Amino acid sequence: MADHPPLCFTRLFGQEKAKRMLRRSLATGRVPHAYIFRGPEGVGRKLFGRGLAAAINCRDHSTVTACGVCPSCMKIYSGNHPDFMVISSEKGGIKIGQVRKLCKDLSYPPYESVMRVVILEDVHAMRPEAANSLLKTLEEPPENNLLILTADSSRQILATLTSRCQVVPFSGLQGDDIVTILEQHGINPADAQLFAHLSGGSPGKALLLENTGIVELWKEIVTVLSVEEGGSDADIGVVLKLAEKMAGLKEHLDHLLIFIKIWLWDLLVAPHRPSSPGGMMIEFLKEEPRKLRKWSSEQLFTQLQAVEFAEKGLARNCNRLLVCEVLLFRLQ
Ligand SMILES: [Zn+2]
Predict the structure, then answer these.
(1) 21 CA to middle of ligand 1, Å?
(2) pLDDT confidence of 157, banded at 50, 70, 90?
């Protein structure tokens, strides 16, 4: 069973700058009426928004953050607080109808708290007409409302939105922190290392990878390619089946190809760097009873090129299944 992230934002991983800014606002009582939490996907922006909502409405006034046990904190933690809302972004961003409904809701006072807190997800994806309909409310929200917009740091957002909010920067997390978070979600240490390696600092992204079955498929591919009796005589049927599974990953196939590249790279550098951290990735092969193949540096370079060739093919929208089949045959 996964541990739930703590309610108090100061106990969340990383984001020291965001913590400092939010603590200062709370301590001085100068919380603006709107924030933009700007940073990569999956690094905790919504959890910080929830923590801020809890801190503002906490009934224990001896702390500037959230106590976690008063009725208000408990309701926010369980997702049942009537004055804490998340407006989710669907494909194409938050819609104009959602904004209109929100503006109407905000015109009523909060049900039971000092401040109603609303998180608006992924405002970078909003269409201009939806964003424009939010501007007036953003500039002068009705009393006792705080809006927290989240936006991707790699995407453009309208200056009319940023100029009306206090921007709080978020960044990718350290590898060790991601490993700890993943282990708290029940992921075994070896996979957690691997995911942390791949996630680009985003535990949210790493957890998404976990749910797509990529690691299992990657292990299957590595095993088929690594055992000697597989080798060039590997059952063509097995390889074609693997290619089919790979193609079935659709947009996640890119991640799998990165996994394969890391594995090959690891094999290439292992003789020169025995303490290579990537060594953990093939830990599972140690239990393989069959004899494992050994490739020369030249062969590994050729294989890496084959993966890059496949990546280029995918970028050009070539037939996914065909790209996977060609790749697997070239990797043998
Ligand atoms: Zn509390």
Answers:
(1) 20
(2) confident
